[in-house]
Amino acid sequence: MNVLLKVKPPDAAKIAHSVMAYDRVTEELDLELPLPLFLDTLALKIARVPPEDKYGALSYPLDARAVDTFRFLLGLGVDLSKRDYFLESTAGHVTSFGPRKLAAVELLTRVTPHPRYARTEKPCIAERELVVPTLRLLDDGNTGWMATIDIIARLTELFAPSGQDAGIHEGRGDPYFAQKVRSMIAHRDQPSNFIHQGLAHYDGHGLRISDEGRSTVRALLMATDDSPAA
């Protein structure tokens, strides 16, 4: 007798939102990019989902800046002349990440603790949400190393902090956003920190991505079947 066993998917394979791209002529779905759950709250902030829609249940059009941010972070295929891009809820869906991408998502889930969905009118970027963007910056550079001050500058350019993030931290002279980047590095001895986990190394002046960090972040850029993203 054959017995059918129901296999529970790993949490890393669960998704709550996807970037959807629709053909401007036919209005048909042309591309879907599932977003790993550990990046979900960052995705809501990139798309500027208002706080009253706490979990992003509606569909939100993405402007060129948001589309380019998703391109940089996750390898989103971009053609603004032919496609319109949206962030849409896919809550409850399970995606079939390939083995390499699934392993990368599982590792990055461990270094980015459970997302918090509380947001304000001008939401702040959380320290935990800066891990993947930082690894992408290091991997994207020529040497794999960046000075802390340059990491702050590039992350500021990428996310254009507003509200409290853009305010000056009293007594330190830096914006709150810059202090979050410094705190992310300063907390490197915490077991869940990406530096402690060996994804990057700190030399007192900046960060260098490790071989494991490079392979992990590049796997994140792959399509769900582990092929290069479209």
Question: Could you please describe the fold and organization of this structure?
Answer:
With 230 residues, this protein is α+β, with helices and mostly antiparallel strands. The protein has a domain at 12-96: Cloacin immunity protein (Chitinase A, domain 3). It is built from 7 helices and 7 strands; from the N terminus they run E-E-H-E-H-E-H-H-E-H-H-E-E-H. It has helices spanning 40-46, 64-74, 99-111, 131-140, 148-159, 176-186, 211-220; strands at 14-23, 29-36, 60-61, 83-94, 145-147, 200-202, 206-209. Helix 3 (99-111) packs across helix 7 and helix 4 (131-140) crosses helix 7 (211-220). The radius of gyration is 18 Å and the shape is globular. The N and C termini lie far apart (43 Å).
